[in-house]
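Reviewer comment 2.1 asked that we show a complete input and output for one of the modelled complexes. We chose the magnesium ion case, as it is the one discussed in the main text.
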Amino acid sequence: MTVTDSTRVKLSCRNVWKVYGDNPTSWFTSKDNPANPADLAERIRTCGSIPAAADVSFDVNVGEIFVIMGLSGSGKSTVVRCLSRLVEPTHGEVILDGENLLEKNRKQLIDIRRHKMGMVFQSFGLLPHLTVAENIAFPLRLQGLSKTEQRERAARVIELVGLEGRESSFPRQLSGGQQQRVGIARSLAVEPELWLLDEPFSALDPLIRRQMQDEFLRIQSALKKSIVFITHDFLEALRIADRMMIMRDGMVVQIGTPAELIVNPADDYVAEFTSDVPLVRVLLAGDVMQTGHTVSDDMPRVASTTTVEAILPELATHEGGVAVSDGGNIVGVVTPGSVISALAREAASRESQSAELASRGIAAQS
Amino acid sequence: MTDVTDKPDTTDRPSKARSLTTRSSLVWLAIVAFTLLLLFLRTAAPWLITYPDGWILPITGTMNIAMDWLVAETGEFFRSVSTALEVPMSGVRNLLNWLPWSVTLLLLAITAYAASGWRLAVFTVFAIGYMVVVGLWTESMNSLALVVMSVPLAVFIGFMFGALAFFYPRAERAIISMLDVLQTVPAFAYLLPILLLFGFGAVVGLIASILFAFPPMVRNTLLGLRRVPPEVIESGLMSGATARQLFFLVRVPSALRQILLGINQTTMAAFSMVVIASIIGGSSDVGWEVLSAMRKARFGESLVAGIVIALMAMVMDRITAGFANKDTDDFTKGDGSFFQRHRYLTIAAIGTVVLFALSAVLPMLRVYPEGWEYDPSGPLNTAIDYLIVEYAALIGLIKTWAFFFLMLPMKIGLEQTISPFSWGFEFTTERKLMYAAAAVLATALAWFRWGANGAVVTSLFLVTIFFGITKLPWPAVIAAITFLAWQLAGARMAAGVLACLAFLLLSGVWPQTMLSVYLCGIAVILSFALGTSLGILAAEFNPVSQVLRPICDTLQTMPLFVLLIPFVMIFKIGEFTALLAIMAYATVPAIRYAEHGLRSVSADAVEAADCMGCTRWQLLTRVKIPLAKPVMMLGLNQTIMYGISMLVIAALVGTSGLGQQVYIGLGDADFGVGMTAGIGMAIIAIVADRLTQAWSKKHQAELGITPP
Ligand SMILES: Nc1ncnc2c1ncn2[C@@H]1O[C@H](COP(=O)(O)OP(=O)(O)OP(=O)(O)O)[C@@H](O)[C@H]1O
Ligand SMILES: [Mg+2]
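Response of the prediction step:
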């Protein structure tokens, strides 16, 4: 969605483990433990410890929105807290701008948090005794900036999130959506390069959530941060993700673009996540167009990466079809007929997939 | 004693529960039989009832020797502390006395307004005005000086301990046990060592009130720091906070409300201890005024001074609570002129200057002219005398009835109470046999109706009122309580309780303990019954609740001392007066917990019962009360605790028992005697506390309810 500079890796998470339990490091020092991560995680679990994150590896590119998804308890929050060392990883490496974060001492870490990272929390984490403006300026105050500088920089982000006029309110006087705007503004006040968001919109009701997603995309299109975003709502992920990662029981199940996950789910767990997604939101103009049609001049043009959902209103008024362009060249035409046949094809393949899963399930049981 | 503090760890497995119940019923029957046997043997072996003096260990003597040694070794140090504290003490005292009353009034009224608005400000003006007009200004300021000195120190110490406990779990365990001890040992008991170490004077009151007042601050600080949501901490960390910034800029401000509540409780505790400490005299404060007037039976004066204490308590409570409950946004913040940001300070400063200037011209603004004072105690005395004479018959009747039909039977048993003089007939052997037959019958009926436990409770009760609590054989009492502890909370608890009881016996305070248990027992039973009934009414009928709530609030903020006055006035000095005073205080938690328990019964359960067609009465008795029972049991626990703390104060109006013993120790500066009695009271409190808690926990587990 946003233009990503895929040549530069901003953050790299390599084989990160977080084990809760007695003497967690022993799992990685003694030799007689299984080398295969899945087996090791299983062993740890049977011994009564919790592998909240198990061998998690992924890269986030500069300017990319990387979404982590998974059921409750699958370790999403743990992973994102390992990235900022709010939770100390038991094993592995977290590399930010080429430097291992886990080797930093306390002072360096505080410095990195003050200048390079921002984080947004599900339940906002606002300080109840500070006003909106003071909350937002709080990180700047900790850095010891002058009052005027605090005020200036806070005013900039307040405008960015649209909270003008509420500066002197207290958090409890705001609605949930407004409180999260404060949370977002505070995390942006230090102008971080890496932006971590742990289910930022989950506590909001659907309408507000939708509105906040739009806001979020607008802010990102202006700021181009490198983002790790946690959600358990696939539709939300679909709207914002460049790439996403699905987790289960602390382990990574699949990493890819939303369309890849839908079209080629690694297993039934991933398929389950994507099964409710309306196909029109996933299929792109390029997927449903027909080639070889004649293109008339009054046809509207759309990019091949536009979703079918976005083309539908055009199709309703132009029965002849819509021209699809890719880098300036017309590559095909989308007509109502081509959309219907593509939908039928995909639906049938989903159907057969789930039938296959079901029969496999029966086979496994008998 | 350390054993008792441990949590019980026994949980009966359900399959075993039934056989265990029957087995323990058998043990209980054995205990009843054992008691009766010992009573049968009592003429042959009187030591079964009265623990012989010869068997008492020289515990008090040893304590005295230890204390003497301590005083000799460290006395110098403590006395220099005392001298050092004397300087700021008298500074504050002189300042408060030097300030013109009009200035003090203005400053307090502005504080009250800042805390919670004009209503409190008006009340404050009224309260201060009262102190001025009745001519107790100096005394009030002397008391206030002690509070002003002790509260900041107690708050500081409490905050430090709270923070320490928050960061170091090991320290937490030690600190919490220390608080448990400080809060169960009656206040008077530690007046004594302080007196011996620091010498006489106002400093004793100061130190006692710091010791008494800092525990609530520790608890609230700890609680507040604990309750800061993890995401707030994390957001602080992600903002790049250093450890120090995280504590002072994130944790403490987020916990501020709880910390302010701690300051409120600390202030109230400090004031109540300041009032109590005045019994040792020497600081001419309001507490002393009340007490000395009471001793001279000048109840008018005593009441007038008592009202000063009550008003001071209410003003302090409302002001500190007002600040704690205030929304932060009421403070003008950020922009605005200097005057807007500091409007209260500015008004206060201007007002003070103006009043100082005025009082130079009008001296009555500085020192209230004696001629204008109005002392209502004369007319009050007349009124009280009139009432007492007018209703002498009624008062006498109430007293005799309570005495012959309630207190004496519990104390020395029907056996010795019933006589032609008291009950109007002789307690002949035939009648005693009839009582025995009736008792057996009642026990059988109870068994039939409520099972073995019911039978045990009934028989124990009937035996007790026949022979009297103070005349029960000590081996039987020890056996019964120890077994109860074992049944409720397992072997460790039983061992701890046994050790505690052994201390009471060996140190020679067993008879006094039984006297205290008797008085406190009656008070607790009556308070609990009365309070629970009122609480049920309050939960069912909102108007009742609206009437009761301010009364309960007032009774709870009052220094205990003040509660004695009205009862002493009417019923004179004696055990009955003490009983009423204890009840006045101990009924409050019973009301509170019963109402709270009933009101917080889950709405689903009530709705479900409604759907089944319950009448209101059925709903109450079949659904709400059973579900609210665990909370009510906690109320019983609190009733006992309140009863015990009042018991010590009530000893001022002539009770026998441990409370009196504490006074004797205090009066003769006999550390051993006072301290043993103090420890004795603490033992009663701890044992009662742990047993009721265990009981309520057991009940909750059975109902599958988690404590509130
Ligand atoms: N401090 C802790 N001690 C022990 N176990 C923990 C701790 N924190 C998390 N866990 C465990 O780690 C696992 C992963 O937790 P995590 O909070 O990362 O899940 P999540 O994916 O964020 O779930 P949710 O969607 O509910 O937020 C869970 O099983 C949890 O119980
Ligand atoms: Mg989470």
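Confidence is low (pLDDT under 50) at residues 1-17, 329-334 of chain B. We note this here for comparison with the apo prediction described in Section 3.2.
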